[in-house]
């Protein structure tokens, strides 16, 4: 997919991976709407991008992906201000395992399903759209058990299974949308820092969590953004599940995906 003048929505784009994904799309000439709970941060980020990429390059819409009306407003506003939507990146996520763990499922899985359904509504050729690509951000925690974050892993397993099932639709060519999954391992963002691995390492380098992180390695945000751009720009990867790990780099899980090639 050539990105010049394409229109993208990135959820959770005020910081971390979502912000990086949006910036890489802007560098390739796409126009981007980011949405996030963090309104002040989102507006600040877009103000910087408008100075660097042009006043009409980007926009921010405050949104909670668990609130259907708020999420639908992102699509409606983006289409009216930037044009028909070509790319939807369902990136927003949290990692709460304690009280309120249900919100982890609501944001990470139900929010991704909501965003994918809105993407079909706005991009499907069967709905008058131009087709496009959906990137659902899961995790390697959606491919392999992670003992310390079972709720989070459950949400990410759900994202992988849901996305691959959407891609397996026999009439996918009529829909004209590629459904793909991005599965990074640990990546150096605010979310990862909440795990306080360095503190754990000082106390006990043999801690099972420390061992798991040391084995997987820790991606830089740039490592994952590089994988993301490959996923978006590659046209024959419907159903693709891409892993990004420090020790194996960028790979497609289950081999190169040609599920119901568009
Ligand atoms: N950092 C890591 O180690 C990894 C992260 N991921 C996934 O990548 C995605 C991005 O993660 P990071 O950038 O690391 O996290 P982050 O915590 O740095 O950023 C997440 C962003 O999503 C926003 N957000 C949270 N709930 C929201 C909601 N209900 N509605 C709208 N926006 C909301 C937050 O305000 C924040 O700006 C998440 O889905 C995460 O699960 C996957 C694998 C590894
Ligand atoms: C509370 C959540 C906070 C941070 C979690 C972080 O955001 C995240 O997503 C963590 C991922 C954890 C991954 C754990 C194990 C990784 C194992 C690696 O060796 C790679 C595993 C699978 C990829 C290779 C493959 O089997 O295809």
From TrEMBL:
<dbReference type="InterPro" id="IPR002347">
    <property type="entry name" value="SDR_fam"/>
</dbReference>
<keyword id="KW-0560">Oxidoreductase</keyword>
<dbReference type="InterPro" id="IPR020904">
    <property type="entry name" value="Sc_DH/Rdtase_CS"/>
</dbReference>
<dbReference type="GO" id="GO:0047034">
    <property type="term" value="F:15-hydroxyicosatetraenoate dehydrogenase activity"/>
</dbReference>
<dbReference type="InterPro" id="IPR036291">
    <property type="entry name" value="NAD(P)-bd_dom_sf"/>
</dbReference>
<protein>
    <recommendedName>
        <fullName>15-hydroxyprostaglandin dehydrogenase [NAD(+)]</fullName>
        <ecNumber>1.1.1.141</ecNumber>
        <ecNumber>1.1.1.232</ecNumber>
    </recommendedName>
</protein>
<dbReference type="Pfam" id="PF00106">
    <property type="entry name" value="adh_short"/>
</dbReference>
<comment type="similarity">
    <text>Belongs to the short-chain dehydrogenases/reductases (SDR) family.</text>
</comment>
<comment type="function">
    <text>Catalyzes the NAD-dependent dehydrogenation (oxidation) of a broad array of hydroxylated polyunsaturated fatty acids (mainly eicosanoids and docosanoids, including prostaglandins, lipoxins and resolvins), yielding their corresponding keto (oxo) metabolites. Decreases the levels of the pro-proliferative prostaglandins such as prostaglandin E2 (whose activity is increased in cancer because of an increase in the expression of cyclooxygenase 2) and generates oxo-fatty acid products that can profoundly influence cell function by abrogating pro-inflammatory cytokine expression.</text>
</comment>
<dbReference type="GO" id="GO:0016404">
    <property type="term" value="F:15-hydroxyprostaglandin dehydrogenase (NAD+) activity"/>
</dbReference>
<dbReference type="GO" id="GO:0005737">
    <property type="term" value="C:cytoplasm"/>
</dbReference>
